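Marked as duplicate of an earlier ticket. Keeping the data here for the record.
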Amino acid sequence: MKKFYSIIIPVFNEENKIPSLLLNLKRYSDEGHEIIIIDDGSWDNSYKILSESKSGGQSETVISLDSKYCVGSEPHCF
């Protein structure tokens, strides 16, 4: 029986790092896994970039959550 594993990656306002992330995920192009990327309410273009780009993996899911928290002077808090 072949092992199955999940890679879960949380993302929050990481639009500048996503291209590198997607490039690195191409290493995991074998079967037997899933990649789940969760955008935790980013107000930059993180979700848009993720939803328009795929790493080429066998099973990749992008989930967007609404942010429930405000910290300091974040723009969406006002």
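See parent ticket for discussion. The chain has two helices and three strands.
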